[in-house]
Structures are given as C-alpha cells and as structure tokens.
From TrEMBL:
GO terms for biological process: mismatch repair. GO terms for molecular function: ATP binding; ATP hydrolysis activity; ATP-dependent DNA damage sensor activity; mismatched DNA binding. This protein is involved in the repair of mismatches in DNA. It is required for dam-dependent methyl-directed DNA mismatch repair. May act as a 'molecular matchmaker', a protein that promotes the formation of a stable complex between two or more DNA-binding proteins in an ATP-dependent manner without itself being part of a final effector complex. Residues 200-318 form the DNA mismatch repair protein S5 domain. This is DNA mismatch repair protein MutL. The lineage of its organism: Bacteria, Pseudomonadati, Pseudomonadota, Betaproteobacteria, Neisseriales. The keyword Heme does not apply. One of its GO terms (cellular component) is mismatch repair complex. Belongs to the DNA mismatch repair MutL/HexB family. Signal peptide: none annotated. It comes from Andreprevotia lacus DSM 23236. Keywords: DNA damage, DNA repair.
Length: 322
C-alpha cells in the first residue's frame, strides 16, 4: 500500500506547495476560520498548518490518513456536484507516504486532542495530546527518503515562492478567513478577515484595487464578479491574474481567451492585466474532477461560458471607459 501511495504522491504532491494546498483545502472544508501556516526551508523541512475547524474524532484519525478514505463524498450524485474542495481521499495518504506526518486534532466537544504519526506510511497508535481546538498537521522532511523525487525540488526560496503563491490563491478565494504565513520562523504574511476588496488590496496592492473595475454580471445561473484591473504598462502582471470557478483557482483556455478578447476589444490592449474574478455556476455545469493537481476545469457548455464572460467583461470595461 505504501508503494501505491508513493506513486500517487508523485502525482498529487509534486512539490511542497501541492502538499500545502491539500492541507489548506482540508482546513477550509472543515469549516476553519483561521489558518496558520509555518514553513521551514521552503516547506521541504516542515509544512505545518493549524486550523480551528471541526476537528477529527479519535477513531477517524487513522482513516483520514488512509487512501480513498474521504468523509466528503457518499455516492455518485455527490460526485456530480462536489461542494467541498477535496473529495478523492488521497491527499493525506499521499503526503503521509512520502514524509513524516504528525496529525493532531481535537474533535468539536472532545475532552482533549489526539495525535497520530505516520512515518512514510507506517502509522502509530493514537496518543492523547494537547490542542485547544481544531487540527494541526505537520509534514516533516517531504521526499526525504526518495532522493529521486527530492532532486526535482528547486531552491528553498523558489519552493517558498510557490507556497506563498498557493496561499495567495486560497486567501483570495476565502477573504472571510484569516491566514498567517511564516517562513523559517519569520512572519511573512498576515491577512485579517474582510471582504474581497480588502483581501485584494492586501494581496494585489491598493493600487490595483483603486484602478480596477468592479464587475458583477449575471445571466441565468451564471454570475461573474470581482475586480478587473486596467492593463499594466511595462512589466507583465501574469502572476496577478486570479480566476476562480465556484471558489477554485483555475487557469483555463476558454476563460483566458474570453478575457484577452474583452481587453482587446474595449481597450485595444494586448498587455496583461491583473484581475481577480469569480465565476459562479451550477455545480453540474462544470467538471472539477479532471486531475488533482491540474488547475483545469471542463465546462459542460464552454461556448455559453465563453460568450457570457466576453459579454460581461466587455460591458463592464466599456462602462468605465465612457
Ligand atoms: P479528501 O479531502 O479528498 O476527503 P484527504 O486525504 O485530503 O481527502 O483527507 C481525508 C479526510 O481527513 C477528509 O475527508 C476529512 O474527513 C479529514 N480531514 C483532513 N484534514 C482535516 C482537517 N484539517 N480538519 C478536519 N478533518 C480533516
Ligand atoms: Mg483533501
């Protein structure tokens, strides 16, 4: 089973940032309002996430680290309209197979917390532990025992940059939650609860928010809202392009094409613009079950999505130009 998990880990956990994403998404699915992240050496030495979510019951701790154990999907209908960020039940099992993972959790109402440790898939018995509430997961020495994999990791600062970008994406999609991030013991990011505008200002800068166009367009079950920046002169702002579909960060050809067309039509501009936009549609209209790490989606009616995005953006951008 460990080998199967290690192979799966190669897919799910390419680098520390992917492991971090799995942990943060679990915290969000668990209803956490506050997410604290501590990284050491770009996440290669330590990735630690502490949340204040519902927690895990003692008897479910081992199960949580087991492959294909998910508490989120009960039947095929659920899979058709996934409402949680995770649903495959392979995130924790994969990470635990290529690291030393310590899981401490206090289930809502429990007298105290419980702790289990998985050393490259070998699970310890649960022991009583101290934790006020929620869940704390430590991932030590990712890929330490798999030098072939470890070789693909870049410098600590590059791995940290990937982790920080992952935090930005999840933070923008969850402005009502608090995020803190530290690296090698130094505070790196502190985001207080607020609305999308406040969160955009914190992540993308005040300048972006002040110059951006606010969008909120609807057509039937479709809604596009958020902030679209004006094209930046000079340096590319590709990094500051955030698009979310039903709360998930995506990078998709249909979406990018529509955005490029709108900017070109209205502003006659080919340069990259920063944006933070949210598309919402009925869960059945989009397949998020494409690949665990790919930030791709498949729309059931991509033509309709394309036309809606183009029309909405064109209208919003034109209104400010007039
Ligand atoms: P998935 O998210 O696809 O269900 P994971 O392997 O990521 O699979 O997690 C397995 C299970 O462990 C989850 O379904 C959930 O029940 C539990 N779990 C993991 N992390 C947390 C957390 N931070 N708080 C509460 N429960 C958690
Ligand atoms: Mg998960």
């Amino acid at each position: 089973d460990t080998l199967v998990n290690q192979i799966a880990a190669g897919e799910v956990v390419e680098r520390p940032a992917n492991a971090l994403k799995e942990l943060l998404e679990n915290s969000i699915d668990a209803g956490a309002q506050s997410l604290n992240i501590e990284l050491m050496a770009g996440g290669t030495k330590l990735i630690k996430v502490i949340d204040d979510g519902i927690g895990i019951e003692k008897d479910d701790l081992a199960l949580a680290l087991h492959r294909h154990a998910t508490s989120k999907i009960k039947d095929f209908d659920d899979l058709q309209r996934v409402g949680t960020l995770g649903f495959r039940g392979e995130g924790l099992a994969s990470i635990a197979s290529v690291s030393r993972l310590v899981l401490t959790s206090r289930f809502d109402g429990g007298a105290h917390a419980w702790r289990v440790e998985a050393d490259h898939g070998r699970l310890s018995d649960a022991e009583p532990a101290a934790l006020a509430l929620g869940t704390s997961i430590e991932v030590h020495d990712l890929y330490y025992q798999l030098p072939a994999r470890r070789k693909f990791l870049k410098s600590d600062s590059t791995e940290f940059a990937h982790c920080a970008e992952m935090v930005n994406r999840l933070a923008l999609a969850n402005p009502d939650k608090q995020f803190t991030l530290s690296h090698n013991g130094r505070a790196s990011l502190r985001l207080m609860r607020g609305d999308v505008h406040k969160r955009c200002a914190a992540v993308l800068g005040d300048e972006f928010v002040q110059s951006a166009v606010a969008i909120d367009e609807r057509a039937g079950p479709l809604r596009l809202w958020g902030l679209a920046g004006s094209p930046t002169l000079g340096k590319s702002s590709r990094d500051a392009q955030y698009f979310f579909v039903n709360g998930r960060f995506v990078r998709d050809k249909v979406i990018q094409h529509a955005l490029r067309e709108a900017y070109r039509d209205v502003l006659h501009h080919d340069r990259h613009s920063a944006y933070c936009l949210f598309l919402e549609l009925e869960p059945e209209g989009v397949d998020v079950n494409v690949h665990p790490t790919k930030i791709e989606v498949r729309f059931r009616e991509s033509g309709a999505i394309y036309r809606f995005l183009l029309t909405s953006l064109t209208r919003a951008l034109s209104a400010t130009k007039a």
